[in-house]
Here is the input.
Amino acid sequence: MKDSHSGSLLDLPKRTFIRRTQDYESNTLDRMCHFEQMKRMTQGIYKRGFFNSKFSDVTIEALGMKYQLHRIILVQNSFFAGMLDGSWAESDKRTINLTFDDPHITLEGVNAVFARIYGQFEVRLHPKNVFSIMAAASYFNDSDLLDICTTYIIDSITKETVVDSIGFIVASYYGINSDAIIEAIFTFLCREGFADLKEVFAQLPLSWFERIVASDCFCVPSEYERYCFIRDVIELRQKRSDRTKTGHRPLSLADSALDLSSLSLASSDSSETSGSTSASDGSEGESEETTFRDMLSYGVVYSHMRFDQLLQIRGDGFAPAHVLEKAFWTQQEFRCLIEGSAEHITTLGIQYDVDVSKDTSDPSPSEVLIPSGDTDKIDEKQVSGVLEGSIYAHSRVRFPPFRFSLEAADENRIHRGDRVYSKTQFYAGSYWIVYIQKLVAQGSSKLGIYLQRWAQDEEPEIEDPHASASHRVSVYVDRREEVQTWFQLYCFISDQCFILESKPDLFKNTQSWGWRSSKLLKVWTDSAAPGPHTIKISVVMGHV
Here is the structure.
């Protein structure tokens, strides 16, 4: 009995398994046959219907071409469904003429959309046709093709392509797809601008140049180098302008009268949008000079520079002398405030709001807001949201915050779990560094990013040849045991930006505050970008 019972149990699963395998194979073959039939049918519709115009019952005229097409096929597209299957006048016409306001729409773009309607979904995109195809996809409501083109443009943003992409996206607005491209361009310009994009910034719309280079999320190692970047780009723009006047330079984005209001970049305050003045009103040159002067006066925090750097800048003749003198005076006031504070005092009473004693000609009256809480959920943030804020907010406070940036390119050391340090920075009588480290916590690998203070007369002993001390102002000592400091980290990892904010926290000597995140590690390790997986971080910090 036992043997018989055991035998029946062995046989049943075997027969059932074989039957299911046969069913699976049969279904697979059926699906393959159906797929081949569908493929032959769509190829036939495309070849005989679209290519050879067999049995056509409607003619579409566009850009000088006549397409002999089929209503029953066209209504699969929502644009034509509304036109041909509704109460519109075109529904009964045999010939329909289409006109396009978008100058980017060409026959290649129209052909690509029509081919997709007739079942040919493969589209070969390249830099010379993607703008035309995207414009046509938007016109004909082909949302899938629109997303494909958007992804291609974003993935193709480089030093060589970004100017053309900007020119395309400011000329016409394609809803959320335009927003995605603009965001990707802003992120690219903030992340890579200082390193190798001076020529690109010389061709940007003036409003873009102004807002990006003055913003906290623009990755530049120091305020002195921010000044040098602005100075060099202004010189390039002026040279290009001179060549234009003599007829030796092709038109660039910088010459165009661009309405940036639809791009969520230009401020509603007319005093902050000097770069969008139309060339036709005769005031473009004056407006540009005003913007340059504002950038050099309010877009750079001079009060954290060395005295010899201030002398060098004054010798350049770009920044107003009174701005530099005021910065030096502010620096000395700040030093006296630090050195005169008792060791047990943690706050200095620094306010980050509008100082009405400032020069009222400053074009940005907005308040400066420091973080009111700590980032507890790490998500990708939109750089465009940062750029929408007041351009010159830091110039409105008595003691502006300190800004610097770092780049961590040694991925091997990070993977080993070593700490990768920024250059040592001097701010307010203490040394400061940012370090990155791969950590393992609760069995999960995370990427840690921390700001650390080194107080008193010590300079951090760092076993990192890439983290030498930065240039700093004359060293003085903050002898307070604890300082209360807020900070923001704009972390550019792969093609994404993460903004980490900390409300004022107490920093003892050698104390660190920061975040560790498995999400940041995953974004970094999953990056598909060629070359080393670098992490760039722009830091903004200040005492209270």
